[in-house]
TrEMBL record:
UniProt cross-references to Gene3D superfamilies, sorted A to Z: 3.30.420.40
UniProt keyword Magnesium, yes or no: no
Protein name in UniProt: Glycerol kinase
Superkingdom as given in the UniProt entry: Bacteria
Carbohydrate kinase FGGY N-terminal domain span: 4-253
Pfam family, one: FGGY_N
E.C. code: 2.7.1.30
UniProt-listed SUPFAM superfamilies: Actin-like ATPase domain (SSF53067)
Keyword annotations: ATP-binding, Glycerol metabolism, Kinase, Nucleotide-binding, Transferase
Entry GO terms, CC: cytosol
Origin organism lineage: Bacteria, Bacillati, Actinomycetota, Actinomycetes, Pseudonocardiales
Biological process, per Gene Ontology: glycerol catabolic process; glycerol-3-phosphate metabolic process
Pathway(s) served: Polyol metabolism; glycerol degradation via glycerol kinase pathway; sn-glycerol 3-phosphate from glycerol: step 1/1
Known regulation of activity: Inhibited by fructose 1,6-bisphosphate (FBP).
Length: 500
């Protein structure tokens, strides 16, 4: 009998395969980074073929590390960087262009044109999303309008569109030879093209944005058997039975399964999700309404989301662009060499500001600099930027939901940084809790797949698997907390109106 579940986690900077046992424990991990392509200022791209090749390598590597064979795996789930947009030829599987990454801002003018007199809220009642460069629909329109000849080909039914989940699934199940063109509601809800109530593509919005509906994948639930891995490859015959966008997967993996439960994932960006149950709460405070998950035929669960574009990638920028640190973990040591930020605040609006501001005209700024500020202060300001941006989102969430957050579950690569976690608790004024299984994104996708094939019986199994690793309690005085936050809010205003 198969004793394990696998998950493919196709992220912004890397792809990995993880294998879990029934308790949710990690059996094996294999990971491979892919290139970040920056052809122009504000443009961010990935090579889809490089990513698909990496998927195959990490799956083989994970099986080898665990000394397992495909028959040991009951099912596999897929989780992915959302909004990243790929268009490819149905007949060959060849992408017509690089994948346009969620951070990319080239669609700024398209977004403004689509808003017309109604502005950012034009499609929000149906989609839960403001008009922004973040989402897939405007990226797809840019491709159709700017890559030679592809609109005509798309209208003839020769081209397919997908976020990265669809790209991985289509290739995994055969590609040009019968590959499944499918997505789930968590990914579809990030396109600006799906009706949140019906969980179907909206013909009127597709027409307004200029997207031929023949390109769009079928929307199915987040947890069901879609098909099997193609006969060639190490995962041959394994059912693919779960799809969740990365942040929804982390919410599921954190067992935030009841209304009012929230998590924050600290990755390339930060993403706070609050479970609102079966109620679609349309934000009045700059948040997104999104599908949290849909398990088989069960009711759809919705979330409020606060999306922050640049957090972990700011540490990478400090390492790769400035050379101030040699490795990402080194930032904690450098930041710990000083007691505070020395009056410096770093607002990383590299691709504009996401929630709750939604200012595509903003660009990054370091403010409050004096001769006193040194390398340690800047390193600390980089970490504190993540915590300050999280507080902005939490305050918007509290206002929308009417229920103040009492504690925050955290996960992702940055939560090993204890200096950051303590400052996060200090600036929020609530406990911050890290689970034993830190990489909950892959775990959530594994849970979705496992539920579909009966590996786990119910969501109660997910709750019982969750366990606390460490908790940080606030230690900062109220006066100091509010002084720091007021300075941060002032710093944010200095980034506005930079792009004409």
């Amino acid at each position: 009998m198969a004793s394990y579940i696998a998950a493919i986690d196709q992220g912004t900077t890397s792809t990995r395969c993880m294998i879990f046992d029934h308790s949710g424990g990690v059996v094996a991990v294999n990971q491979k980074e892919h290139r970040q392509l920056f052809p122009k200022a504000g443009w961010v791209e990935h090579d889809p073929l490089e990513i698909w090749n990496n998927v195959r390598q990490v799956c083989a590597g994970a099986l080898a590390k665990a000394d397992l064979v495909s028959s040991d795996i009951a099912a596999c789930g897929i989780t992915n960087q959302r909004e990243t947009t790929v268009v490819w030829e149905k007949a060959t599987g060849k992408p017509v262009y690089n994948a346009i990454v969620w951070q990319d801002t080239r669609t700024d003018e398209i977004v403004s044109e689509l808003g017309r007199s109604e502005g950012q809220s034009r499609f929000q009642a149906k989609t839960g999303l403001p008009l922004a460069t973040y989402f897939s629909g405007p990226k797809l329109k840019w491709l159709l309008d700017n890559v030679n000849g592809i609109r005509a080909r798309a209208e003839k039914g020769e081209l397919l569109f997908g976020n990265m989940d669809t790209w991985v699934l289509w290739n995994s199940t055969g590609g040009p030879d019968g590959g499944l063109h499918v997505t789930d509601p968590t990914n579809a809800s990030r396109t600006l093209l799906m009706d949140l109530e019906t969980l179907q593509w909206d013909p009127d919005i597709c027409a307004e944005i200029g997207v031929p509906m023949s390109m769009l994948p079928e929307i199915r639930s987040s947890s069901e058997v879609y098909g099997q891995f193609r006969e060639r490859g190490v995962f041959a015959g394994i059912p693919i039975a779960g799809i969740l966008g990365d942040q929804q997967a982390a919410t599921f993996g954190q067992a935030c399964l009841s209304p009012g439960e929230a998590k924050n994932t600290y990755g390339t960006g930060n993403f706070v999700l609050l479970n609102t149950g079966t109620e679609r709460v349309i934000s009045q405070n700059g948040l997104l309404t999104t599908v949290g998950y849909k398990i088989g035929d069960n009711d759809t669960i919705y979330c409020l989301e606060g999306s922050i574009a640049v957090t972990g990638s700011l540490v990478q920028w400090l390492r790769d662009n400035l050379g101030m640190i040699g490795t990402a973990p080194e930032i904690e040591q450098v930041a710990s060499s000083v007691d505070d930020n020395g009056g410096a605040y770093f607002v990383p609006a590299f691709s504009g500001l996401f929630a709750p501001h939604w200012r595509s005209d903003a660009r990054g700024a370091i403010v409050g600099l004096t001769r006193y500020v040194n390398r340690g202060h800047l390193a600390r300001a980089v970490l504190e930027a993540t915590a300050f941006q999280t507080r902005e989102v939490i305050e918007a969430m509290n206002a929308d939901s009417g229920v103040p957050l009492k504690s925050l579950k955290v996960d992702g690569g940055m939560v090993v940084n204890e200096l950051l976690m303590q400052f996060q608790a200090d600036i929020l004024g609530v406990p911050v809790i890290r689970p034993k299984v830190n990489e909950t994104t892959a775990l959530g996708a594994a849970y979705a797949a496992g539920l579909a094939v009966g590996f786990w019986e119910s969501e109660a199994d997910i709750r019982s698997n969750w366990a606390k690793d460490k908790q940080w309690d606030p230690a900062m005085t109220e006066d100091l907390r509010e002084k720091h936050y007021a300075n941060w809010q002032k710093a944010v205003t200095k980034t506005f109106d930079w792009v004409d």
